[in-house]
Design a protein that fits this description.
This protein is mainly alpha-helical. It folds into two domains: about 70 residues, Helix Hairpins (Orthogonal Bundle); about 110 residues, 3-Layer(bab) Sandwich (minor pseudopilin epsh fold), CATH 3.55.40.20. It has eight helices and three strands, in the order αααααβββααα. The structure holds manganese (II) ion. The site of manganese (II) ion has 7 residues, from helix 1.
Length: about 200
């Protein structure tokens, strides 16, 4: 299977002032595109991988041929994570569905408490990685963070679950506008969250 770069679902400047246009263009057109290109190169190098979906590849990192394991972990993860992340952002103000709000209050105490815990995970991720809100197998929501391009769907993840919300905290996601001020980027992120999409992920 050959993977393709999905278009951004909005104009790159539409998230300003929270996330700047230049960051969005470079992030999507250069970084995400490179993950797709490198993933395709890795998959093409082993015929046993030809029919596998992206989720199938990243959920079974341990079972991949050793020659492509790291490349697919990094680039398959990079492709999945960014495709998910673009959909989590939105220039238009949205609201949590009543179901999502009730679920967050039930599992975290309040929406503010969830945001605080998530922000803490995003701030304290050392180096490059991601923060997540996930649904566990038992249905409970929990927050985690992963290094590099790992994600909670991967068998290599410390905490496994199904993501409903994500934030990229690689420097490439914020450095042009925020430089070393990752907490400011995380604070701004809440202004452009697509709660319709997060609510939809919860329902799946
Ligand atoms: Mn990124």
């Amino acid at each position: 299977m050959s993977f393709t770069l999905p278009p951004l679902p909005y104009a790159p400047e539409s998230l300003e002032p929270h996330i700047d246009a230049a960051t969005m263009v470079i992030h999507h057109d250069k970084h995400h595109n490179a993950y797709v290109t490198n993933l395709n190169t890795a998959v093409a190098s082993d015929a046993t991988l030809a029919s596998k979906s992206l989720e199938d590849l990243i959920k079974h990192i341990h079972h991949l041929p050793e020659s492509v394991r790291t490349a697919i972990r990094n680039n398959g993860g990079g492709h999945w994570n960014h495709s998910f992340f673009w959909e989590i952002l939105n220039p238009v103000e949205t609201k949590l569905s009543p179901e999502l709000e009730a679920k967050i209050i039930s599992d975290f105490g309040s929406v503010e408490a969830m945001k605080e815990q998530f922000s803490k995970a995003a701030i304290s991720r050392f180096g490059s990685g991601w923060a997540w809100v996930n649904k566990a197998d038992d249905g409970k929501l929990f927050i985690s963070s992963t290094p590099n391009q790992d994600n909670p769907l991967m068998d290599v993840a410390d905490q496994k679950g199904t993501p409903i919300l994500a934030l990229d905290v690689w420097e490439h996601a914020y450095y042009l506008k925020y430089q070393n001020r990752r907490p400011d980027y995380i604070g701004a992120f809440w202004n452009v969250v697509n709660w319709n999409k997060v609510s939809q992920h919860l329902g799946k």
